[in-house]
Design a protein that fits this description.
alpha+beta; 10% strand; three-stranded antiparallel sheet; elongated; 3 strands; single chain
């Protein structure tokens, strides 16, 4: 009984190894039925760019000197697709992430009113004390500070 179980277990392990090996080698070598990709069918790369600095272009792939990220290719068919569409183009993923909402353009008066609570005061950093040249002395100073309310006729 032990020998039969050992034989069946060995056959199952061998079958699993055979299926895994076939899948590995079949993926590594394309079959003769699939035609090879020619250079015409391959997408043409115009330039490489860093996604964090898209205005800087590079001639070949590699790492970005700015952020140490892999450079991303810009293909010729991407350029022609965006050039044919009029107006501003925003990536759909960015539109969803930012919550961009669009509306059709219409002519009409612009009515916009907004109120904000505020205090108007002078800038203390630009406040300059000028001393007038006069013959005399200050004999008494009343205890007042910035922001105190003063009534008419009160001594300063």
């Amino acid at each position: 009984m032990k020998n039969i179980a050992l034989i069946i277990g060995s056959m199952m392990a061998g079958g699993i190894i055979a299926v895994g090996g076939y899948a590995y080698f079949a993926a590594a070598h394309p079959s003769a039925n699939t035609p090879p990709v020619t250079e015409k069918e391959a997408r043409k790369v115009l330039f490489w760019y860093d996604p964090m600095y898209p205005n800087t272009r590079f001639d070949k792939p590699g790492k970005s000197p700015f952020m140490d990220m892999d450079l991303v290719p810009k293909y010729a068919d991407e350029e022609s697709a965006s050039a044919t569409a009029p107006g501003v183009r925003i990536d759909p993923t960015q539109t969803q992430n930012l919550g961009v909402k669009t509306e059709a353009v219409r002519r009409g008066p612009l009515t916009f009113a907004q109120t904000f609570p505020a205090n108007v005061s002078y800038n203390e950093y630009q406040f300059v004390i000028m001393q007038a040249r006069a013959a005399g002395f200050v004999e008494k100073v009343w205890p007042l500070t910035v922001g105190d309310k003063v009534k008419k006729g009160a001594p300063l």
